[in-house]
Amino acid sequence: MRKIVIALLGFVITAGAPPIAAQQIGRAPLDIAVPAAPAAIHALGRAHVVYELHVTNMGRSELTLDRLVTADADGHALADWQGPALRTRMSVVGQPPAGGPTAMLAPGRRAIVWMWITLAPGEAPPSSIAHQFTASAAGVESETVVARGVPVRSTTSATAAPVGSGNWVAVRGPSPTSPHRLSLVTLDGCTRAPQRFAVDLVRLGDDGRAFHDDATNVKNWYGWDAPVHAIASGTVVRVRDDAPDHAAMEASVPDVMDRDEAPGNVVVIDLGGGRYATYAHLHQGSARVVAGERVSAGQMLARIGNSGNTRAPHLHFQITDTAEPLAGEGLPFALDRAELVGRIPDLAALLAGTPWAPVPSMPARTMTAETPLENMVLAIGAVPLHGGGR
Questions:
Q1: pTM of the predicted model as reported, rounded to 2 decimal places
Q2: pLDDT winner (highest mean) among 100-104, 232-236, 361-365
Q3: What class is the 158-351+361-367 domain?
């Protein structure tokens, strides 16, 4: 036994852990991965294909990503980005450079390309997408890398709204620049985008504002204590109801968040087919359901609160492929019907108390089986008198 131990120790000492030095074939050794299948959503009368590309420089020299061309199964180009158009869609993993967006990848560095491809009106989503990168290194000719095509996930069925009647703003709803969309979470040894299609629903009052008087008082927010509803039938698989609600406009995003504390009070419903609906930041003690209970579409689940990682009362809603809100991939959703009556200019204006007002010259538009996009003002459960659509 002693000899075996000595032999094993000797192996450890002499063998060591060699540096990764894969044989480099070609000038652009890019590893191109699509962790989650591209998903098509429909909004404003068009299809949009949303996903992420993970691009890693596996070589020994700096590489600059000069161009990205995407094409469908028949070779028809869907998007062609180069220069600033590509850089602004990229994030290099780690500390961002002081000089702004960059397309340069040091050896061993990874970039995330946030893909949002908007198709022409009436154009159907492709069945698959292929990717072609052109990259260059200092002093050498550029090289093009063609990656195999990946299938596109079909559009999901439309559901009822998770909130009741009124005007609601889809804060941080899906868009190319939404903080939800651009948020990756690493848990259990895997990096995912659970909030890829998430939305924060903030209710507006008759005055067009999100709150009245003192904004730090949660009860002054028009969405406070509003009921939330099941979007479809399913089984409740997770309920938390004991997290305290805190004052509005005072919370700051911590450097490190606890996976269970971030959502606050939460209800998660198994919709079937590997789809789980999450309702987060709920009012303490307001849950009307328990784990294991079967619910039907439109059934009241709880009330909007201000628990967890949130600055003001709202409903955080998302669909993922796991029952744990932050451990799965975000999946698309669509509302069976809503009225698009306008947009807020930005979140800062809303939080500053700037009222939203409809624009009569832009009539409301009925949304049928569409996904609400970032900062849209939606009239749910009632037809507005007038409003600003697109």
A1: 0.89
A2: 232-236
A3: mainly beta
